[in-house]
Amino acid sequence: MPQFILEGILTVVVGVLAYGFIVNYPDSAAFLKPKERVFIHKRLAADGDASENEGFTWGNVRAALADPKCWLYCFGFDFMSLPLYTLSLFLPTIIADLGYSAVSAQLLTIPPYALATILTTVVAWVSERVGRRAPFLIASALTASIGYCILLAPQTLQRGRECPTWGHSSQPLVSIQPLDLC
Question: Among residues of the chain, what percentage have pLDDT more than 90?
Answer without folding.
Answer: 13
